[in-house]
Amino acid sequence: MNVVIIEDEHLSAQRLETMLKKYDASIQVLAEIPSVAEAVQWFKENENPDLVLMDIHLEDGQSFSIFERINLDVPVIFTTAFDEYTIQAFKVNSVDYLMKPLNYDELVKAIEKYKRIHAEKEESGKSIEQLLQSLHRKEPEYKSRFLISIGSRLMTVETEGIQYFFSADKITFLVTTDGHRYPVDFSLDKLAAMLNPKEFYRINRQMTVKLSAIENIHVFSKGRIKLDLNPPMKEDVFVSLDKVVEFKEWLGK
């Protein structure tokens, strides 16, 4: 079986390939593609694989737009960080999904489903059309909780209780209302698609803050803006100069 993986996080793509090989060593991964644009180009230049495993949020947009740019008649298993209640509207006969973090048993079930559908010669193109129609009908829904790994223990943190996210040393952390800090598996770029933009705003390259976390706003010369957050950060928190105008518009919405 020939497979293409469309995933913009290299470690996730590698882990997925490892699980595929564990399931069936004869599976050939033809390509690992990180973006919508590169996926469109690849499918234009190559024959369709038997199966595509595709992350919903890529570095340059939602993967659903691939099907809007080219006629891609191929079975797809989506991977996503969305909660299950959100993705149910997208689930159709020839399209399955895997929740992140990826689970081997769930991958096996998804591939077995693909095999059943393929054996029955169902038309995956119709399923994709249903998926896109469902996507356009749905109002956007945002991530309600995050799965956190602490050593050998797993826990969940409700988005409602998160005050801000920041990156340091190539790791992204969330900070809760009571001041606890936990690492998360998503970059700030990825989080932008998961968080309600009415509540969260990315003020600079290292930080995304929640409106309720802002206690004071200080305006300095040349338009610089400094924020006092709750819980406080050890370092001063500034809004990037190129985001000041947009930040003020966000505050006034």
Automatic annotation (TrEMBL):
Q: Which residues carry this modification: 4-aspartylphosphate?
A: 55
Q: Where is the Response regulatory domain?
A: 2-115
Pfam families, alphabetically? LytTR, Response_reg
Where is each HTH LytTR-type domain found?
146-253
* SUPFAM superfamilies (alphabetical): CheY-like
Q: Does the keyword Phosphoprotein apply?
A: yes
Record-linked InterPro entries: CheY-like_superfamily (IPR011006), LytR-like (IPR046947), LytTR_DNA-bd_dom (IPR007492), Sig_transdc_resp-reg_receiver (IPR001789)
Tell me the keywords, alphabetical order: Phosphoprotein
| MF annotations from Gene Ontology | DNA binding; phosphorelay response regulator activity
Name of the protein this chain belongs to: Response regulator transcription factor
